[in-house]
Amino acid sequence: MLSTTENPRIRVIDLETGGNGANDVCEIGWQDVVPDADGRWQVGEDRGARFVNPGRPISPDTMAVHHILDAQVADAPLWKQVAPSVLRPVGGVTALAAHRAAFEQRYCRPSMTGGSPWICTWKCALRVWPDLPRFSNQMLRYQRMPVGLVHEIGLPAHRAMPDAYVTAHHLRDLLNEASLEQLLAWSLEPGLLPRVPSGPDRGRPWDRLTSDALIEFTRNKDIDVRFSANSELRRRGEGDSGQTIEVVQDRLL
């Protein structure tokens, strides 16, 4: 259920981790998106980041991405001590958001979020800007060049607050093109890929494929590929309209 606070806000979350364990977060960053007096969404003033002690050494693989050192997090609080105050701030949030939110949801469990709904800006970008060639957070940044994004605040990349800040600009623009309810609904479904992502048909729109080729893609191990192929079959009236959609969020929670 959406929050009914007088001052709605969506908090964009980005995590850096030290490994793949359930509590291996080593940094959390956030950036709020709020409506202005005219009801248009904007990037707010509330942003920040906190180091988190993952409880064990950070792996070299992840250290090479975010460059956070063990010494920097040694005296930081543990994840269970940090998470609630960021994920459930005073005044509450209408929703939480992240780019490829399934990753953040692995760590931001409902007991920490209070059951807030999530927006996945990656899934929503696929729907709103399907003609773009790529959809990573940073590629969207430079393909779209969002208005008002201060280049220096969004650096360094692969750190929690700068990445959340960049994602917030995508979220702002998505919210101003589609409704909050629509973004939440899209976020519950697998990603609707505009084109075949790999293989001999890589880069081809789904509507350019034969029905036999689409049926083969419905057996793919990737849930987003299966969903995209099935969506095109249903558009043609050849798919199973009663097919149960696999909901990533429910599987994670």
UniProtKB/TrEMBL annotation:
Q: Which GO terms describe its molecular function?
A: 3'-5' exonuclease activity; nucleic acid binding
What keywords does the record list, in alphabetical order? Plasmid
The record's section on Pfam families has:
RNase_T (PF00929)
Q: Which InterPro entries match?
A: Ribonucl_H, RNaseH-like_sf, RNaseH_sf
Instruction: Determine if Amino-acid biosynthesis is one of this entry's keywords.
Output: no
Say if the entry is tagged with keyword Transcription regulation.
no
- GO BP terms: DNA replication proofreading
Superkingdom, according to UniProt? Bacteria
Q: Which residues form the Exonuclease domain?
A: 9-180
* A single cellular component GO annotation: cytosol
Identify the CDD domains for this entry.
DEDDh
Q: What PANTHER family does the entry give?
A: DNA POLYMERASE III SUBUNIT EPSILON (PTHR30231), EXODEOXYRIBONUCLEASE 10 (PTHR30231:SF37)
For this entry, the protein name equals DNA polymerase III subunit epsilon
Organism annotation: Rhizobium grahamii
